[in-house]
Amino acid sequence: MAGLKSLASSLRKKLHLGGRQCHSTDPSTSNGSVEPKVEPKASMSPAEPTSAPEDAPKLPEVVPAAEMVVSTSPQLLSTSLEGKVAVVTGSSRSIGAAIAKALGSQGAKVVVNYVNDSSAAQSVVNEIKAFNTKESKGCDAIAVQADASKLEGGQKLLAEATKTWGQVDILVLNAGIMGSKPLAEVDEDFFDSHFEINVKVPVFLAKAAVPLMPTPGGRIIFFSSSLTGLTPVLPNALTYVASKGAIEQVARVLAKDLGSRGLTVNTVSPGPVDTPLFRAGKPEEVIKKIAAQNPNNRVGLPEDIAPMVAFVASPAAQWINGQNLRVNGGAVL
Ligand SMILES: NC(=O)c1ccc[n+]([C@@H]2O[C@H](COP(=O)([O-])OP(=O)(O)OC[C@H]3O[C@@H](n4cnc5c(N)ncnc54)[C@H](OP(=O)(O)O)[C@@H]3O)[C@@H](O)[C@H]2O)c1
Protein backbone atom coordinates (compact mmCIF):
# COMPACT_ATOMS: atom_id res chain seq x y z
CA MET A 1 0.00 0.00 0.00
CA ALA A 2 2.80 2.38 0.99
CA GLY A 3 4.51 1.49 -2.29
CA LEU A 4 1.36 2.23 -4.22
CA LYS A 5 0.95 5.58 -2.53
CA SER A 6 4.50 6.58 -3.19
CA LEU A 7 4.13 5.51 -6.84
CA ALA A 8 1.01 7.63 -7.15
CA SER A 9 2.72 10.55 -5.49
CA SER A 10 5.78 10.33 -7.72
CA LEU A 11 3.57 10.04 -10.80
CA ARG A 12 1.67 13.15 -9.77
CA LYS A 13 4.96 15.05 -9.38
CA LYS A 14 6.29 13.80 -12.71
CA LEU A 15 3.11 14.69 -14.54
CA HIS A 16 2.67 18.00 -12.69
CA LEU A 17 -0.94 17.16 -12.00
CA GLY A 18 -3.12 19.68 -10.22
CA GLY A 19 -6.39 17.71 -10.12
CA ARG A 20 -8.43 17.59 -6.95
CA GLN A 21 -8.35 14.71 -4.55
CA CYS A 22 -11.06 13.94 -2.10
CA HIS A 23 -10.22 10.78 -0.22
CA SER A 24 -7.04 9.79 1.42
CA THR A 25 -6.44 6.08 0.96
CA ASP A 26 -4.79 5.99 4.37
CA PRO A 27 -7.40 5.07 6.96
CA SER A 28 -5.34 6.64 9.72
CA THR A 29 -5.67 10.08 8.16
CA SER A 30 -8.96 9.70 6.39
CA ASN A 31 -12.23 10.78 7.93
CA GLY A 32 -14.11 11.57 4.74
CA SER A 33 -13.01 15.18 4.83
CA VAL A 34 -11.97 16.90 1.65
CA GLU A 35 -8.38 17.94 1.12
CA PRO A 36 -7.60 21.51 0.11
CA LYS A 37 -8.67 21.96 -3.46
CA VAL A 38 -6.62 23.12 -6.39
CA GLU A 39 -8.37 24.49 -9.42
CA PRO A 40 -8.41 21.70 -12.01
CA LYS A 41 -6.73 22.32 -15.34
CA ALA A 42 -8.53 21.82 -18.59
CA SER A 43 -7.36 18.77 -20.44
CA MET A 44 -8.43 16.52 -23.26
CA SER A 45 -8.06 12.81 -23.25
CA PRO A 46 -5.35 11.68 -25.69
CA ALA A 47 -8.04 9.59 -27.35
CA GLU A 48 -10.16 12.61 -28.20
CA PRO A 49 -9.68 13.57 -31.84
CA THR A 50 -10.47 17.28 -31.69
CA SER A 51 -9.25 20.07 -29.47
CA ALA A 52 -11.62 21.83 -27.09
CA PRO A 53 -13.01 25.22 -28.04
CA GLU A 54 -11.67 28.19 -26.07
CA ASP A 55 -14.80 28.52 -23.96
CA ALA A 56 -15.16 24.80 -23.15
CA PRO A 57 -15.78 24.08 -19.47
CA LYS A 58 -12.75 23.02 -17.51
CA LEU A 59 -12.96 19.30 -16.87
CA PRO A 60 -10.80 17.68 -14.24
CA GLU A 61 -7.66 15.92 -15.37
CA VAL A 62 -7.89 12.35 -16.56
CA VAL A 63 -6.74 10.46 -13.48
CA PRO A 64 -3.61 8.34 -14.01
CA ALA A 65 -4.25 4.65 -13.51
CA ALA A 66 -2.03 4.53 -10.44
CA GLU A 67 -4.23 7.09 -8.73
CA MET A 68 -7.41 5.35 -9.76
CA VAL A 69 -6.33 2.29 -7.79
CA VAL A 70 -7.95 2.56 -4.43
CA SER A 71 -7.53 0.47 -1.38
CA THR A 72 -10.04 -1.58 0.52
CA SER A 73 -9.62 0.70 3.51
CA PRO A 74 -12.64 1.09 5.78
CA GLN A 75 -13.10 4.66 4.61
CA LEU A 76 -13.48 3.57 0.99
CA LEU A 77 -15.99 0.93 1.95
CA SER A 78 -17.97 3.49 3.87
CA THR A 79 -21.49 4.60 3.13
CA SER A 80 -20.92 7.68 5.27
CA LEU A 81 -21.35 11.01 3.52
CA GLU A 82 -19.66 13.07 6.21
CA GLY A 83 -17.84 16.00 4.66
CA LYS A 84 -19.76 15.73 1.37
CA VAL A 85 -21.87 18.47 -0.16
CA ALA A 86 -24.94 17.44 -2.17
CA VAL A 87 -27.27 19.33 -4.46
CA VAL A 88 -30.65 17.65 -5.00
CA THR A 89 -32.96 19.28 -7.54
CA GLY A 90 -36.67 19.27 -6.66
CA SER A 91 -36.22 18.19 -3.06
CA SER A 92 -38.86 19.91 -0.94
CA ARG A 93 -41.34 17.04 -1.37
CA SER A 94 -41.77 13.54 -2.75
CA ILE A 95 -38.76 11.49 -3.91
CA GLY A 96 -36.36 14.46 -3.82
CA ALA A 97 -37.19 15.22 -0.18
CA ALA A 98 -36.61 11.59 0.81
CA ILE A 99 -33.26 11.69 -1.03
CA ALA A 100 -32.21 14.93 0.66
CA LYS A 101 -33.04 13.45 4.07
CA ALA A 102 -31.28 10.17 3.30
CA LEU A 103 -28.12 12.03 2.25
CA GLY A 104 -28.36 14.25 5.33
CA SER A 105 -28.84 11.24 7.59
CA GLN A 106 -25.49 9.92 6.32
CA GLY A 107 -23.77 13.19 7.20
CA ALA A 108 -24.00 15.22 3.97
CA LYS A 109 -24.58 18.93 3.70
CA VAL A 110 -27.53 19.32 1.35
CA VAL A 111 -28.96 22.02 -0.89
CA VAL A 112 -32.73 21.45 -0.70
CA ASN A 113 -34.31 22.88 -3.85
CA TYR A 114 -37.90 24.03 -4.27
CA VAL A 115 -39.91 26.24 -6.59
CA ASN A 116 -43.13 27.10 -4.81
CA ASP A 117 -43.29 25.61 -1.35
CA SER A 118 -40.70 27.25 0.90
CA SER A 119 -42.20 25.85 4.10
CA ALA A 120 -41.98 22.28 2.78
CA ALA A 121 -38.33 22.92 1.86
CA GLN A 122 -37.65 24.42 5.29
CA SER A 123 -39.11 21.40 7.05
CA VAL A 124 -36.76 19.11 5.05
CA VAL A 125 -33.89 21.38 6.10
CA ASN A 126 -34.98 21.18 9.74
CA GLU A 127 -35.23 17.39 9.61
CA ILE A 128 -31.71 17.15 8.21
CA LYS A 129 -30.30 19.50 10.83
CA ALA A 130 -32.02 17.44 13.53
CA PHE A 131 -29.87 14.42 12.60
CA ASN A 132 -27.00 16.31 14.19
CA THR A 133 -28.60 16.46 17.59
CA LYS A 134 -28.93 12.68 17.62
CA GLU A 135 -25.57 11.57 16.28
CA SER A 136 -23.53 14.72 15.70
CA LYS A 137 -22.55 13.88 12.14
CA GLY A 138 -21.83 17.35 10.79
CA CYS A 139 -24.75 17.27 8.40
CA ASP A 140 -26.39 20.52 7.40
CA ALA A 141 -28.88 21.86 4.87
CA ILE A 142 -30.09 25.04 3.22
CA ALA A 143 -33.26 25.65 1.23
CA VAL A 144 -32.79 27.30 -2.15
CA GLN A 145 -35.58 28.54 -4.36
CA ALA A 146 -34.69 27.89 -8.01
CA ASP A 147 -36.44 26.67 -11.13
CA ALA A 148 -34.69 23.45 -12.15
CA SER A 149 -36.32 23.59 -15.57
CA LYS A 150 -33.99 26.51 -16.37
CA LEU A 151 -30.23 26.31 -16.50
CA GLU A 152 -29.91 29.56 -14.52
CA GLY A 153 -31.96 27.91 -11.78
CA GLY A 154 -29.64 24.93 -11.66
CA GLN A 155 -26.59 27.16 -11.68
CA LYS A 156 -27.98 29.06 -8.72
CA LEU A 157 -28.07 25.78 -6.77
CA LEU A 158 -24.41 25.09 -7.51
CA ALA A 159 -23.49 28.66 -6.64
CA GLU A 160 -25.30 28.46 -3.30
CA ALA A 161 -23.59 25.16 -2.49
CA THR A 162 -20.12 26.50 -3.21
CA LYS A 163 -20.83 29.82 -1.48
CA THR A 164 -22.00 28.03 1.66
CA TRP A 165 -19.71 25.01 1.81
CA GLY A 166 -17.04 25.60 -0.84
CA GLN A 167 -17.59 22.48 -2.92
CA VAL A 168 -20.03 20.12 -4.63
CA ASP A 169 -19.45 16.37 -4.29
CA ILE A 170 -22.84 14.93 -5.21
CA LEU A 171 -25.33 16.15 -7.82
CA VAL A 172 -28.74 14.46 -7.88
CA LEU A 173 -30.82 15.52 -10.89
CA ASN A 174 -34.16 14.46 -9.51
CA ALA A 175 -36.52 17.24 -10.64
CA GLY A 176 -38.66 16.15 -13.56
CA ILE A 177 -42.09 16.26 -15.11
CA MET A 178 -44.32 13.50 -16.43
CA GLY A 179 -47.02 14.57 -18.87
CA SER A 180 -49.24 12.01 -20.52
CA LYS A 181 -50.37 12.48 -24.13
CA PRO A 182 -50.53 10.36 -27.28
CA LEU A 183 -48.71 11.57 -30.38
CA ALA A 184 -51.84 13.23 -31.81
CA GLU A 185 -51.97 15.59 -28.82
CA VAL A 186 -48.28 16.27 -28.39
CA ASP A 187 -47.23 19.74 -29.47
CA GLU A 188 -43.82 21.34 -29.43
CA ASP A 189 -44.33 23.11 -26.11
CA PHE A 190 -45.30 19.87 -24.39
CA PHE A 191 -42.34 18.06 -25.92
CA ASP A 192 -39.84 20.84 -25.19
CA SER A 193 -40.97 21.29 -21.59
CA HIS A 194 -40.19 17.62 -20.91
CA PHE A 195 -36.81 17.69 -22.59
CA GLU A 196 -35.87 20.96 -20.83
CA ILE A 197 -36.23 19.67 -17.27
CA ASN A 198 -35.75 15.93 -17.83
CA VAL A 199 -32.75 16.11 -20.18
CA LYS A 200 -31.30 19.48 -21.16
CA VAL A 201 -30.92 21.10 -17.76
CA PRO A 202 -29.59 17.91 -16.12
CA VAL A 203 -26.96 17.61 -18.87
CA PHE A 204 -25.80 21.21 -18.63
CA LEU A 205 -25.99 21.22 -14.85
CA ALA A 206 -23.78 18.15 -14.77
CA LYS A 207 -21.39 19.97 -17.11
CA ALA A 208 -21.32 22.96 -14.78
CA ALA A 209 -20.86 20.80 -11.68
CA VAL A 210 -17.99 18.65 -12.91
CA PRO A 211 -15.26 21.26 -12.41
CA LEU A 212 -16.50 21.78 -8.85
CA MET A 213 -16.27 18.10 -7.94
CA PRO A 214 -13.44 16.22 -6.25
CA THR A 215 -11.56 13.73 -8.37
CA PRO A 216 -11.70 10.95 -7.58
CA GLY A 217 -14.96 10.96 -5.67
CA GLY A 218 -17.57 13.13 -7.43
CA ARG A 219 -20.98 11.60 -8.01
CA ILE A 220 -23.61 12.50 -10.63
CA ILE A 221 -26.98 10.77 -10.40
CA PHE A 222 -29.61 11.24 -13.09
CA PHE A 223 -33.26 10.23 -12.80
CA SER A 224 -35.13 8.08 -15.25
CA SER A 225 -38.11 5.75 -14.82
CA SER A 226 -38.76 2.03 -14.93
CA LEU A 227 -41.26 2.90 -17.69
CA THR A 228 -38.35 2.85 -20.16
CA GLY A 229 -38.20 -0.91 -19.57
CA LEU A 230 -41.93 -1.59 -19.36
CA THR A 231 -43.68 -3.91 -21.79
CA PRO A 232 -46.26 -3.26 -23.09
CA VAL A 233 -45.37 0.39 -23.63
CA LEU A 234 -48.02 3.00 -22.88
CA PRO A 235 -49.00 5.19 -25.88
CA ASN A 236 -49.52 8.24 -23.63
CA ALA A 237 -46.00 7.92 -22.26
CA LEU A 238 -44.36 8.95 -25.56
CA THR A 239 -42.72 12.21 -24.52
CA TYR A 240 -41.90 11.26 -20.94
CA VAL A 241 -40.34 7.92 -21.86
CA ALA A 242 -38.43 9.48 -24.75
CA SER A 243 -36.93 12.06 -22.40
CA LYS A 244 -36.08 9.48 -19.74
CA GLY A 245 -34.56 7.16 -22.33
CA ALA A 246 -32.42 10.07 -23.46
CA ILE A 247 -31.06 10.74 -20.00
CA GLU A 248 -30.22 7.06 -19.52
CA GLN A 249 -28.08 7.26 -22.67
CA VAL A 250 -26.47 10.48 -21.49
CA ALA A 251 -25.44 8.71 -18.29
CA ARG A 252 -23.93 5.78 -20.20
CA VAL A 253 -21.76 8.08 -22.29
CA LEU A 254 -20.76 10.36 -19.44
CA ALA A 255 -19.82 7.38 -17.29
CA LYS A 256 -17.00 6.70 -19.75
CA ASP A 257 -15.91 10.31 -20.21
CA LEU A 258 -16.15 11.42 -16.60
CA GLY A 259 -15.25 7.99 -15.27
CA SER A 260 -11.76 8.52 -16.64
CA ARG A 261 -11.66 11.69 -14.57
CA GLY A 262 -12.51 9.93 -11.34
CA LEU A 263 -16.25 10.59 -11.15
CA THR A 264 -19.15 8.17 -11.34
CA VAL A 265 -22.33 8.82 -13.35
CA ASN A 266 -25.39 6.66 -12.84
CA THR A 267 -29.14 6.72 -13.41
CA VAL A 268 -31.70 5.78 -10.80
CA SER A 269 -35.00 4.62 -12.30
CA PRO A 270 -37.89 4.30 -9.88
CA GLY A 271 -41.04 2.33 -10.59
CA PRO A 272 -44.38 3.86 -9.64
CA VAL A 273 -43.95 5.91 -6.46
CA ASP A 274 -46.79 7.48 -4.54
CA THR A 275 -46.20 11.17 -5.23
CA PRO A 276 -48.28 13.97 -6.80
CA LEU A 277 -46.41 13.40 -10.08
CA PHE A 278 -47.52 9.76 -10.14
CA ARG A 279 -51.09 10.37 -8.93
CA ALA A 280 -51.87 13.20 -11.36
CA GLY A 281 -54.83 12.23 -13.57
CA LYS A 282 -55.09 8.64 -12.28
CA PRO A 283 -58.33 7.41 -10.75
CA GLU A 284 -57.95 5.31 -7.58
CA GLU A 285 -58.83 2.10 -9.50
CA VAL A 286 -55.91 2.67 -11.85
CA ILE A 287 -53.57 3.16 -8.91
CA LYS A 288 -54.84 -0.07 -7.34
CA LYS A 289 -54.26 -1.88 -10.62
CA ILE A 290 -50.70 -0.57 -10.81
CA ALA A 291 -50.12 -1.58 -7.19
CA ALA A 292 -51.36 -5.10 -7.96
CA GLN A 293 -48.69 -5.46 -10.66
CA ASN A 294 -46.02 -5.22 -7.99
CA PRO A 295 -45.09 -8.40 -6.12
CA ASN A 296 -45.42 -6.33 -2.93
CA ASN A 297 -48.98 -5.38 -3.94
CA ARG A 298 -48.29 -1.69 -3.44
CA VAL A 299 -46.70 1.20 -5.23
CA GLY A 300 -43.39 2.51 -3.96
CA LEU A 301 -42.81 5.23 -1.41
CA PRO A 302 -40.17 7.95 -1.77
CA GLU A 303 -38.31 6.25 1.09
CA ASP A 304 -38.03 3.09 -1.04
CA ILE A 305 -35.96 5.02 -3.60
CA ALA A 306 -33.77 7.23 -1.42
CA PRO A 307 -31.45 4.55 0.03
CA MET A 308 -30.24 3.61 -3.46
CA VAL A 309 -29.30 7.22 -4.13
CA ALA A 310 -27.52 7.53 -0.78
CA PHE A 311 -25.55 4.37 -1.52
CA VAL A 312 -24.59 5.35 -5.07
CA ALA A 313 -23.46 8.73 -3.70
CA SER A 314 -21.17 7.10 -1.14
CA PRO A 315 -17.50 6.10 -1.32
CA ALA A 316 -18.57 2.45 -1.17
CA ALA A 317 -20.15 2.81 -4.62
CA GLN A 318 -16.91 3.75 -6.37
CA TRP A 319 -17.24 0.75 -8.71
CA ILE A 320 -20.85 1.46 -9.71
CA ASN A 321 -20.59 3.58 -12.83
CA GLY A 322 -22.74 3.98 -15.93
CA GLN A 323 -25.54 1.83 -14.57
CA ASN A 324 -29.28 2.24 -14.84
CA LEU A 325 -30.40 1.21 -11.38
CA ARG A 326 -34.05 0.24 -11.38
CA VAL A 327 -35.69 0.55 -7.98
CA ASN A 328 -39.24 -0.74 -8.22
CA GLY A 329 -39.86 -3.60 -5.82
CA GLY A 330 -39.93 -6.04 -8.72
CA ALA A 331 -42.68 -4.30 -10.71
CA VAL A 332 -40.57 -4.00 -13.87
CA LEU A 333 -37.81 -6.54 -14.46
N1 LIG B 1 -43.32 9.26 -8.82
C1 LIG B 1 -43.10 8.28 -9.69
O1 LIG B 1 -43.91 7.35 -9.83
C2 LIG B 1 -41.82 8.27 -10.50
C3 LIG B 1 -41.52 7.10 -11.21
C4 LIG B 1 -40.36 7.08 -11.98
C5 LIG B 1 -39.53 8.17 -12.03
N2 LIG B 1 -39.85 9.29 -11.33
C6 LIG B 1 -38.94 10.42 -11.43
O2 LIG B 1 -38.51 10.80 -10.14
C7 LIG B 1 -38.30 12.20 -10.09
C8 LIG B 1 -39.08 12.80 -8.93
O3 LIG B 1 -40.45 12.51 -9.11
P1 LIG B 1 -41.54 12.83 -8.00
O4 LIG B 1 -42.65 11.89 -8.23
O5 LIG B 1 -40.91 12.90 -6.67
O6 LIG B 1 -42.00 14.30 -8.50
P2 LIG B 1 -42.92 15.39 -7.80
O7 LIG B 1 -43.84 14.77 -6.83
O8 LIG B 1 -43.53 16.21 -8.88
O9 LIG B 1 -41.81 16.27 -7.06
C9 LIG B 1 -42.13 17.44 -6.50
C10 LIG B 1 -40.85 18.13 -6.06
O10 LIG B 1 -40.16 18.67 -7.20
C11 LIG B 1 -40.08 20.10 -7.04
N3 LIG B 1 -40.14 20.70 -8.34
C12 LIG B 1 -41.10 20.61 -9.28
N4 LIG B 1 -40.78 21.34 -10.36
C13 LIG B 1 -39.58 21.89 -10.09
C14 LIG B 1 -38.72 22.77 -10.81
N5 LIG B 1 -39.04 23.22 -12.03
N6 LIG B 1 -37.57 23.15 -10.21
C15 LIG B 1 -37.25 22.73 -8.97
N7 LIG B 1 -38.02 21.91 -8.25
C16 LIG B 1 -39.16 21.50 -8.81
C17 LIG B 1 -41.24 20.46 -6.13
O11 LIG B 1 -41.04 21.72 -5.52
P3 LIG B 1 -42.31 22.63 -5.03
O12 LIG B 1 -43.02 21.82 -3.99
O13 LIG B 1 -41.72 23.87 -4.50
O14 LIG B 1 -43.15 22.84 -6.25
C18 LIG B 1 -41.17 19.29 -5.15
O15 LIG B 1 -40.10 19.43 -4.25
C19 LIG B 1 -38.70 12.73 -11.46
O16 LIG B 1 -37.57 12.88 -12.28
C20 LIG B 1 -39.60 11.64 -12.01
O17 LIG B 1 -39.63 11.62 -13.42
C21 LIG B 1 -40.98 9.35 -10.56
TrEMBL record:
Organism placement in taxonomy: Eukaryota, Fungi, Dikarya, Basidiomycota, Agaricomycotina
- Organism, per UniProt? Pleurotus ostreatus
Q: What is this protein called?
A: NAD(P)-binding protein
Family (UniProt): Belongs to the short-chain dehydrogenases/reductases (SDR) family.
Question: What are the start and end residues of every segment in region (Disordered)?
Answer: 15-57
Provide a Gene Ontology MF annotation, just one: oxidoreductase activity, acting on CH-OH group of donors
Entries under Gene3D superfamilies matching the protein = NAD(P)-binding Rossmann-like Domain
* Classification via PROSITE patterns: ADH_SHORT
Where is composition skewed (Polar residues) in this entry? Answer: 22-33
